[in-house]
Q: What sequence folds into this?
């Protein structure tokens, strides 16, 4: 079974703090993704990576950056947290092959910015 | 028009009923389709993948209609444990990548 883990289930941070969210997958997947999920808005893609040290902006990258130094690990960084970044953050991974690109999700990190 | 659209529901159905959800997509070049199940405050979990016309797994059947650009999920003999939100996801080739877009989900409540 694919296993995707995230560093924290719940986080509370203050406005202006730098926040690191980490994601690790154990299935040697090429692709990794960061989403946020908010009520009524669904899953919105922040950034994704298709290879080590490669990254691409998703639909809502503003206020975020990412790092992928190793294939199994993909980090999301909030440079200066703001209250509108309070959300559920979900990491996912998938194989890079053809159309079989099912994504497998981690348990999520519920971030509250005060 | 949104890339992927779902009726948010909720669909309230009695135990044992058959229920179907539709998901419409806008890109006719979409190549593969997925249904995920998401329980409250949990992550989405893959339920079914559809690469051609459809797929069946026990009580669950997914059907793809390329002409009308929708995918459906049929649940037979609904159980209380089927209560969840069902997300549709569509894969489109985009700039050399395979981009998956998710719908906002359809909420199902199975009632005793």
A:
């Amino acid at each position: 079974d694919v296993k995707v883990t995230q560093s924290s289930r719940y986080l509370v941070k203050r406005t202006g703090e730098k926040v690191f969210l980490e994601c690790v997958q154990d299935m040697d997947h090429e692709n990794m993704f960061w989403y946020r999920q908010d009520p009524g808005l669904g899953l919105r893609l922040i950034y994704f990576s298709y290879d080590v040290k490669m990254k691409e902006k998703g639909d809502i990258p503003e206020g975020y950056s990412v790092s992928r130094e190793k294939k199994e690990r993909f980090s999301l960084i909030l440079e200066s947290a703001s209250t509108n970044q309070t959300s559920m953050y979900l990491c996912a991974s998938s194989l890079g092959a053809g159309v079989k690109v099912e994504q497998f999700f981690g348990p999520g990190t519920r971030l509250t910015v005060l | 028009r949104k890339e992927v659209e779902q009726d948010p529901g909720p669909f309230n159905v009695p135990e044992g009923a058959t229920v179907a959800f539709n998901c419409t997509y806008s890109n006719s070049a979409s190549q593969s389709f997925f249904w995920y199940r998401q329980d409250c405050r949990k992550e989405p979990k893959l339920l079914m993948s559809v690469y051609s016309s459809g797929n069946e797994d026990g009580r669950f059947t997914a059907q793809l209609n390329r002409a009308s650009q929708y995918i459906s999920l049929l649940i037979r003999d609904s159980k209380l444990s089927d209560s969840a939100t069902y997300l549709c996801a569509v894969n489109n080739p985009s700039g050399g990548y395979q981009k998956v877009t998710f719908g906002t989900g359809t909420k199902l409540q199975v009632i005793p």
Observations:
- Residues 32 and 93 of chain A are 4 Å apart (CA to CA).
- Chain A has a mean pLDDT of 93.
- The first strand of chain A starts at residue 4 and ends at 6.
